[in-house]
Amino acid sequence: MTARGRASALLASYVALACGPAVPSPARGFASSPLAWSSSPAAQSPSSAGPLPELAAELATTRGLELARLPDFVELPRAQLITAAVDLVRRTTPEDVRARAVRALSTLELAPADFDYLAAVERALTSSLHAFYDPDRRIIFVDRALAPADRERAATHELVHAAQFDVRSARDLRSTSDQHAALLTLAEGEAAFVTERLRPTLHDASDALGNDAVATDGETPAILLRSLAAPYVDGHAIVVSEYQRRGWAAIAALWSRLPLATHQLLHPDAARQPALLQLPPAPKDDGWLLRSSDVLGEQALRCVLEEWSPEPEARRVASAWIGDRLAWFEAGRDSVLIWALQFDGPTRAEEARQALTSGLRLVGTDVRHETGRRATALPCRAHRDSGVVGIMGQAEHVWLLALHGSSTEAQCRTLAEWSARVALRLAPTSTRVARNSPVAADP
User: Fold this and answer.
1) Which of 298, 308, 229 has its CA nearest to residue 265?
2) Distance CA 317, CA 180 (A)
3) DSSP secondary-structure letter at 384?
4) Which of 108, 130, 188, 303 has the most neighbouring CB atoms within 10 Å?
5) Contacts 24+ apart (CB under 8 A), 5-10
C-alpha cells in the first residue's frame, strides 16, 4: 500500500483498527472531538475569520506558535458535518481495509463478524464530532449549533492543530500504526492543554472527550470507543506531566523526538527501548502469502486488555510491552493472523499471556503436538464465528494466533505446528531500535 493510501483515514486506525491488524496510517487531520479528519465536505464558502485572529494572537503569545497565515473558518449544520465525515470514510478507506478491520476485531472476538463498520462510524460521529481541521484545504470546520463558548473552545483546539502542521510539520505518512498513535496522542494532548490555558473557564476538554468516548451505546464495540478516547486521555496526562517538569521546552522536545512508539511517549524515562520484532514466519514455507504487517504498540495492547480487565490492571500489564508485530497470511481460502508480542522479562510476559488466555477463554483448552523430540501444549479452541484461536508463550514472548480454514481439530494442530515454527524463528533473538528510529510496516 502506498504512503498516501496508508494515510487515507484516521478513522481506519482509531475507530476500527487501533487494536487491529495492519492498517492505513492515520490521516493528516485532527479534530476537537474524538475523531480526526482530512476532509473535503460539500463545497462551502469560508465565513468570516470568526474567533481565529484573536485566538492566533493568544496562541503565539502563550505557546510561541505562529501560523504563516490563518486557516479559513467554516461553520456547517451538524447533519452536514456528520454526512460529510461518513462519506469521507467511505471514499478514503477502501472496502478491503474495512473488511480487514472487521476481521481483526472479530478474530479477537471484540466485534461480531457481521459488524457494520460504516454504521459504527456514523454512530460515533453523531455523538462526538464537533469540529475538525482540514490541513490540505487549510480550513477549520465547526458545528454551527455549538454554543459560543464551545465554538470558541473548538476553534482554539483546531487552531493548535493548524499550528502543529505549520510549525511542527505534523505530517507523518510512512511509519507504523503505533508511531501514528504516538503522533496523534501528542498532538491531541498539546491541543487540549493549550485550549485549557487559553480558555481556563471552560471545562477540561480532555476529560470531557474521554468520558464521552467510553460511554458505550450498546451497539458500537467498546474497544472502538476506548480507542477513540485513548489519545485524548493519554495525551493530556503526558503533556501536563511534561509541562510541569520543564515547561513548554519539554513539549517541544517530545515533538523533536518523533517518530516515537506509544511506549516511549507513555514512559519518557524508560530505560529499555522498544524492540523491532522480526516478521513472523508463515504457517508453512509454501502457499502462504503475507497480506499485511504492522506494529500496534502499548496503547493498542491496553485497549485490548481493557476488554477483560479493569483499566489500572490493563495499563500495568501493557506497560511491560517492549515490541510487537502483527501479520496476516493467506493461502487460498485459508487465512491466519499472528500477533507476536515481547515484554520486559519472562514474568511480565507470563502476566500478559495469562490475561489474554483468560480473556479469550483459552484456559484448559491445551492441544498437544509433537515437534521432533519436544511436546508442545497450545491452548486452542473453536472461534465464536469460525476457525480457531490459540495462544503460546515462551520467555519474554507471547504469540496470539488465529486460523480460518478446515475442521477445528485440524486447525488446532496447524496452529500448534505454526507456534513451534514461530518460537524457533522469533524467540532466540530480537533487535533493539534507536529511540527515534522509524519502523516501517511491511506493505
Assistant:
1) 298
2) 22
3) S
4) 188
5) 5/94, 6/173, 6/174, 6/441, 7/173, 8/92, 8/93, 8/94, 8/97, 9/38, 9/88, 9/89, 9/92, 9/93, 10/35, 10/36, 10/37, 10/38, 10/184
Which grid cell is 130?
Answer: 464537533
Tell me whether the omega of the peptide bond preceding residue 259 falls within 30 degrees of 0, making it cis: yes
Amino acid at 13: S
| Grid cell at residue 91 | 471514499
Extract the C-alpha cell encoding 275: 524492540
Taking the C-alpha atoms of residue 432 and residue 323, their distance in angstroms, rounded to an integer, is 9
Element (H, E) at 276: strand 275-276
Residue type for position 379: P
- More confident position, 428 or 198: 198
pTM of the model: 0.82
Strand, coil or helix: 332? coil
Q: Is 387 left (phi over 0), alpha (psi -120 to 50) or beta?
A: left
Alpha helix ranges (H) inside 273-407: 297-305, 311-318, 346-359
The three cell numbers of residue 404 are 480460518
82: cell is: 456528520
Residue 13 phi, psi (nearest 5): -95, -35
Type of residue at 57: A
Phi, psi dihedral angles at 404 (to 5 degrees) = -120, 120
Q: 225, 408, 133, 254: which is closest to 416 by C-alpha?
A: 408
Beta-carbon count within 10 A of 376 CB: 17
- 103: exposed, middle or buried (Cβ count in 10 Å: 0-12, 13-18, 19+): buried
Strand order in the sheet with 289-294: 289-294, 321-331, 334-343, 397-404, 388-394, 374-382, 366-371
Each residue's pLDDT tens digit, 207-246: 444 444 445 566 778 888 888 889 999 999 999 999 999 9
Distance of CA 292 to the CA centre of its chain: 16
**Strands (E) located in 304-406:** 321-331, 334-343, 366-371, 374-382, 388-394, 397-404
- In angstroms, the CA 27 to CA 136 distance is 11
Alpha-carbon distances, residue 223 vs 80, 108, 167, 277 (angstroms): 27, 11, 33, 25
Query: 236 Cβ partners below 8 Å, 6+ apart?
Result: 188, 189, 192, 193, 204, 205, 206, 207
Q: Which of the listed ranges 42-56, 311-325, 369-383, 389-403 does the model predict with the highest average pLDDT?
A: 311-325
295-304 per-position pLDDT tens digit: 999 999 999 9
- Residue 146 CA to residue 366 CA, distance in Å, equals 56
